[in-house]
Design a protein that fits this description.
Radius of gyration of chain A: 20 Å
Radius of gyration of chain B: 22 Å
CATH topology of chain A: Rossmann fold
Number of helices of chain B: 11
Distance between the termini of chain A: 34 Å
Number of helices of chain A: 10
Shape of chain A: globular
Distance between the termini of chain B: 11 Å
Number of strands of chain B: 0
Strand content of chain B: under 5%
Strand content of chain A: 15-25%
CATH class of chain B: Mainly Alpha
Largest sheet of chain B: none
Chains: A alpha/beta (316), B mainly alpha (294), C mainly alpha (316)
Structural class of chain A: alpha/beta
Number of domains of chain B: 1
Number of domains of chain A: 1
Structural class of chain B: mainly alpha
Oligomer: heterotrimer
Shape of chain B: elongated
Chain lengths: 316, 294, 316
């Protein structure tokens, strides 16, 4: 059952020398209860995608295409309509737990605020806030505290609790564990996993950490220079990566390195500047397998019903 | 009195020539520059620019409205108002430059001492400076004037005295920040005396923000001088000051309302011009200061 | 919180003592002694001797200082040289008028300035925003006593809408209010621009922060986001700066009171200066300094109250 359908999404920001194309024709499908990982380097457009899923693009950004969430096209809706969807239909857990919560309001006040779209009485909101904290493993006492009095891991769990409060159909997690230590990260990931079981919440997990994707996701989508270069079930992409960039990412993943590897592999070069995207394959300049035809736009090659790669040499 | 609190240390961000160009591109800055130049010229060339003698009395023609003979009319003693206003520019800028100059010098010295000298001296100076700046400046000024009497020297002294703490604190902050800088350590290692380090190495680096802040204080000082002269505590008649001309205007408000209107104009224009110029200059030279100054 | 408050109050007292010493020092540093000054050209040796004895100037300096300080701390600020009235009484008699002026001026300036600052942020880049940029600088720069004179000339003398002199009849709130309008306008005008700029800068910075994005992500309406998640955080640095700027209000008040011949501390002091009545001037300076210190300390405490992070930093 399709919950989210992103079709040919293009997003550009105004920039010094012309518009910067952060997303260039992204297609994405998420079914109810699925956990989809979105992987890529910094600057590839991950955060823009996360914002777009909430209809929260910054003013000045231009967007084309469709983002259909539970039957509503976010890009076509007026702001008021989009606002109503935020919270109950789609919720956000963002990267920076310290910055994500207001320093001058208590946890309770903010958790109650964030139930805005649910139209409940104050008492109900307070009760639900307490429940939500409990479901992420935090004691009631934290309700009266201020964010700076909590540890990083606690703050991130509060952020997840806030997202859960509304029992959204879709949870967008934008690098939720990047700022956390390994143990806390494991707890948070465990929480996210339980969501699907308990409430049937679908999750779009945006991250640059492959290990997280492997541990939690059903499907994975690889983003490079504003385009999806490979997508498929996690096992498929992990065992049989078809795009050179995906292969390189997997090779660089510290978790996957052989114990005796003496040097950390890197991918030479840098992602292209998105103000003037390259004409052909955007990865070609850095690709060890590039050929002459890679200067023309690559085809999307379907390798299985669920697995596809954007590469001239996907089959070779 | 001062517009400075703490400012980031280190050399200014942009060289003067590009700064000047940036300044001219900003319409307010260009306007400010034009106005400032106008007033400076007026002040310098007053004896030649003023149409008549500002002290020449003509009591039969007192409180005359603007006419071809007297473009701005005459005051209650028949003196040509325009000439008095032109000479007033000389007084205003003279007092401003003198007091800001003295204050900046003293502030520089005290700030360097506090920032680079022994810690007890720093603690003492900070306490005293905080104390003086806790005083509502106008009160302090009035207190000194009570004892010393009105007049230009007192005026310059008082204005300088209230400005010193702000400058001193700025220089102190800059000095403290630079104290740990590698080049200072190197000099110390080579055996340079503290005085030498302070004067030759620290001073050129801390002077920049001081100049910017001081120039932004000029309009404030001009206003203060005008205000004190208005109250007859500053420049005494017959020497023309925009402040005491305004006082004359007030006294003759019913008979000659244009006096107040015309006398206020140069004061307002001058402060506006200096303020726009100062802001533009600060933005052009070192935008980092933007949030820290008044 | 209590320890913090105690320390701030102690600091304020110490500064007050320094100020007293400074005041005292003025008399010794500046040429001329208080008695001849007060007497002016009428200073015959006999009169001078009489006045010296009366003012206690024949005592050694540390005795004078001790008497002054101990007197000040117990509320005895000396006696007016001529009328023999207690200085403190004279000051307290006129203080409410100046306070009313200051409060009225700050009140309307802060209210309007805050509104303009918020508007400039909400409609960033618009004509209003840019007009505000120019106007606020300009308005700060205009000397308040010129504004006072001009508004006196136009609204009081020419149009007759408001009184040109005085503070209204005792007991008649209406006439007192009317007498307050022009002076409060003149004193406050310089502040509107200043406050607007401060609020705009602070709010602009806060609106870019993570917690604002979070609030929006949960569907809160924009006005709520701006006020509860933006302004509440932005207001803290503004309060700090405003408190310090209070001295400027007093400065303006002195001149404006003179222009409108309005009874208040300003006119009290200016008359005292004219008659070289140093005890009154000194007393007024002390009272106003103490008042100013009280305001700054109160502002600091208010900030600690509003921003829980400040409280914790200072607890340590």
């Amino acid at each position: 059952m399709t919950l989210l359908a992103v079709e040919r999404l293009c997003v550009a920001y105004p920039g010094e020398g012309g518009p910067v194309h952060a997303l260039r024709g992204v297609d994405l499908r998420v079914d109810r209860g699925e956990i989809v990982g979105v992987v890529g380097e910094s600057g590839c457009g991950k955060s823009t995608l996360a914002s777009a899923l909430l209809g929260l693009l910054p003013p000045g950004a231009t967007a084309e295409g469709r983002v259909v969430l539970d039957g509503h096209d976010l890009l076509a809706l007026p702001e008021r309509g989009r606002r109503r969807l935020r919270g109950p239909t789609v919720s956000l857990v963002s990267q920076d737990p310290m910055g994500a919560l207001s320093p001058v309001l208590t946890v309770a006040e903010q958790l109650c605020d964030f139930q805005h779209n649910l139209r409940l009485s104050r008492r109900d909101r307070h009760d639900r806030a307490r429940e939500a904290l409990g479901s992420v493993g935090l004691p009631d006492a934290l309700l009266a505290r201020f964010p700076h009095e909590l540890s990083g891991g606690q703050r991130q769990r509060v952020a997840i609790a806030a997202a859960l409060l509304n029992r959204p159909a879709l949870l967008v997690a934008d690098e939720p564990t990047t700022a956390l230590d390994v143990t806390t990260e494991a707890q948070v990931l465990d929480l996210l996993g339980r969501l699907r079981g308990d409430a049937g919440t679908a999750v779009v997990l945006v991250t640059h950490h492959l290990g997280v994707v492997g541990a939690l996701c059903d499907r994975v989508v690889v983003l490079y220079a504003g385009e999806i270069v490979e997508e498929g079930r996690v096992e498929e992409v992990h065992d049989d990566p078809r795009h050179p960039y995906t292969r390189a990412l997997l090779a660089c993943d510290p978790g996957a390195l052989a114990a005796r590897a003496r040097r950390l592999p890197t991918i030479p070069g840098r992602p292209p500047g998105l103000a003037a995207p390259p004409p052909g394959c955007s990865f070609a300049p850095r690709c060890p397998r590039a050929l002459g035809r890679c200067l023309t736009p690559p085809p999307r090659v379907r390798l299985s019903p669920s697995h596809a790669a954007l590469c001239h040499r996907a089959l070779a | 009195m001062s517009s400075a609190a703490e400012a980031p240390a280190g050399p200014a961000a942009a060289p003067p020539r590009t700064a000047l160009r940036a300044l001219l591109r900003d319409p307010l800055g260009a306007f400010g520059l034009a106005v400032v130049v106008l007033f400076v010229l007026m002040a310098l060339l007053a004896p030649w620019v003023a149409p008549q003698d500002p002290l020449a009395l003509d009591v039969r023609d007192k409180l005359a409205p603007p006419s071809w003979d007297h473009w701005a009319g005459t005051d209650q003693l028949g003196r040509d108002l325009l000439s008095r206003l032109v000479w007033g520019a000389r007084v205003a800028l003279g007092v401003a430059l003198a007091s800001v100059g003295v204050a900046a010098l003293l502030g520089l010295l005290l700030g360097l001492l506090a920032g680079y000298g022994p810690r007890w001296l720093d603690a003492l100076l900070v306490l005293v400076l905080d104390g003086v700046s806790a005083l509502p400046l106008i009160m302090f000024a009035l207190a000194v004037i009570t004892v010393a009497g009105p007049g230009i020297p007192t005026l310059v002294g008082v204005i300088a005295a209230v400005s010193v703490p702000g400058y001193a604190r700025l220089i102190r902050a800059q000095t403290l920040a630079l104290r740990q800088a590698p080049f200072v350590e190197a000099e110390r290692a080579m055996g340079a005396s503290p005085a030498r380090i302070a004067l030759v190495h620290l001073l050129p680096n801390v002077v920049g923000p001081l100049v910017i802040v001081a120039s932004m204080d000029i309009p404030v000082v001009v206003m203060l001088e005008a205000g004190l002269s208005y109250l007859n505590f500053g420049v005494r008649p017959p020497t023309p000051s925009w402040g005491n001309i305004l006082q004359d205007g007030y006294a003759s408000l019913r008979e000659a309302p244009w006096m107040v209107a015309l006398a206020g104009l140069p004061l307002v224009l001058c402060t506006l011009g200096f303020t726009f110029l100062g802001e533009s200059l600060r933005d052009a030279l070192d935008p980092r200061l933007r949030g820290t100054l008044r | 919180m209590v320890a913090y408050a105690a320390r701030r109050v102690l600091l304020a007292l110490m500064i007050l003592l320094v100020v007293m010493a400074a005041m005292f020092l003025i008399v010794f540093i500046v040429p001329g002694d208080a008695a001849s000054i007060a007497l002016g050209p009428r200073a015959t040796p006999e009169l001078k001797a009489l006045l010296v004895a009366r003012m206690g100037l024949d005592q050694p300096w540390f005795v004078q200082l001790w008497r002054f300080v101990s007197g000040a701390l117990t509320g005895d600020l000396g006696l007016d040289v001529w009328s023999r009235r207690p200085v403190l009484d004279m000051i307290l008699e006129v203080l409410p008028r100046t306070l009313a002026l200051g409060l009225a001026a700050m009140g309307w300036a802060v209210a309007l300035g805050t509104a303009l600052g918020v508007l400039a942020v909400v409609r960033a880049g618009s004509l209003l925003d840019r007009a505000l940029g120019v106007l606020s600088v300009g308005v700060i720069a205009v000397p308040s006593f010129v504004v006072a004179l001009w508004s006196l000339a136009v609204f009081a003398v020419h149009l007759g809408w408001f009184p040109a002199v005085g503070a209204g009849e005792a007991g008649d709130w209406g006439s007192q209010a009317r007498a307050l309008v022009l002076p409060a306008f003149a004193v406050g005008l310089g502040w509107v621009g200043y406050v607007a700029r401060l609020v705009r800068a602070s709010l602009l910075e806060v609106m870019g922060m993570g917690h604002v994005r979070t609030a929006r992500a949960f569907g809160l309406a924009e006005p709520r986001v701006v006020l509860r998640y933006g302004l509440r955080v932005a207001v803290v640095p503004v309060i700090a700066i405003l408190a310090v700027g209070l001295g400027g209000i007093l400065s303006a008040a002195v001149f404006v009171e003179a222009v409108f011949s309005r009874p208040g501390i300003g006119t009290l002091v200016t008359e005292a200066v004219q008659s070289r009545n140093f005890p009154v001037v000194m007393g007024a300076v002390l009272v106003m300094t103490a008042f100013y210190l009280a305001v700054v300390t109160a502002a600091d405490l208010l900030i600690a109250l509003l921003d829980p992070r400040v409280r914790d930093v200072l607890r340590g």
